[in-house]
Amino acid sequence: MEGSFGLIIDTIAEGFDRDGNKEFINFLSFSKGSASDLKSQTFRAFDKKLITKEQFNKLINICELEKNKIGVFMYYFKKSEIKGQKFKRD
Q: Which of 31, 47, 55, 69 fits a disulfide with 51 by CB distance 3.0 to 4.6 angstroms?
């Protein structure tokens, strides 16, 4: 599951490097979906008794928190006039 957290971060970084607001929002959406994937993996790990109830609860809470943070970030950029570096005039 540790790799899944990395995927979320890597996808955000990739979107940021696209230098455009719309592209960044799109990649934030992918990252939010990856957080949902991680939540699903957490349920499966708990069902298979690979993690404790305490670990399960902690991971589920982290997934929800990260999904919410990404959602707020997406909302901010949707409402923002920031268009990205590639739209910046010299």
A: 55
